[in-house]
Amino acid sequence: MIGAILAFVIVDGIAIIAGSWITSIVPVDYLKIISAIVFIIIGIFMLISKDGEEKETTQKNPFIAAFLLIMLTEWGDKTQIAAAIFATQYDAIFVFIGTITALLILSLIAIFFGKVISTRLNKKIVNKIAGIIFIILGITFIIL
Fold first, then answer.
1. pLDDT attached to residue 56
2. With 0-12 CB in 10 A as exposed, 13-18 as middle and 19+ as buried, what is 80?
3. Over 60: is that where the pLDDT of 57 sits?
4. What is the pLDDT of residues 59-95, one digit of tens each?
5. For residues 140, 130, 31 and 97, what is the CA-based torsion angle, rounded to 10 degrees?
6. What are the residues whose beta carbons fall under 8 Å from the beta carbon of 35, sequence distance 6 or more?
7. In a designed cystine with 65, which of 45, 59, 73, 78 is the match (CB 3.0 to 4.6 A)?
8. Domain that holds residue 28
9. 89, 35 contact by CB (below 8 A)
10. Which of 114, 85, 117 is nearest to 98 (CA)?
11. Residue 30's pLDDT is what?
């Protein structure tokens, strides 16, 4: 758990700093449109994606395994992109706290309930629901 959270702090922290910094260069109205388009594109890719299967690891040290897994897979991930986009529109500190809190809770769920949940929920359906939510968020950015 600590390895995963440390990696999330680094990866998403960098994204939030970059997202917050970009607002000083690009007008917020343009960023909202770009953000909306990115969210909609991510949602569409999630809806059409055939991937979603998780790979097993043979790493013996859980701290190193979790840290490396998150550090290597989260760069450019939809969570990191979303955190950076939210940081363009909201206070970066609150985006960071919210992002890390959500990732901590999700990691706890994955660690403690992952086995039970993975046997009862269809990953493809969960992925489709997440894709629809991203599209709705993108549309909301355009409207608001």
1. 53
2. buried
3. no
4. 578 788 788 877 876 776 777 888 888 988 899 999 9
5. 100
6. 85, 88, 89, 138, 141
7. 59
8. 2-53+60-143
9. yes
10. 85
11. 83
The answer to whether residues 63 and 3 touch, using CB atoms and an 8 Å cutoff, is: yes
Over residues 81-136, the pLDDT tens digits come to 888 889 888 999 999 999 999 999 988 887 887 667 667 778 788 788 888 998 99
3-state secondary structure the chain: CHHHHHHHHHHHHHHHHHHHHHCCCCCHHHHHHHHHHHHHHHHHHHHHCCCCCCCCCCCCCHHHHHHHHHHHHCCCCHHHHHHHHHHHHCCHHHHHHHHHHHHHHHHHHHHHHHHHHHHHCCHHHHHHHHHHHHHHHHHHHHHC
Question: At which residue do the structure tokens 């969960």 appear?
Answer: 126
Instruction: Phi first, then psi: give them for residue 122, nearest 5 degrees.
Output: -80, 115
The token pair at 94 is 């609150």
What is the tally of structural domains in the chain?
Answer: 1
Please state the φ and ψ torsions of residue 59, each to the nearest 5 degrees: -60, 130
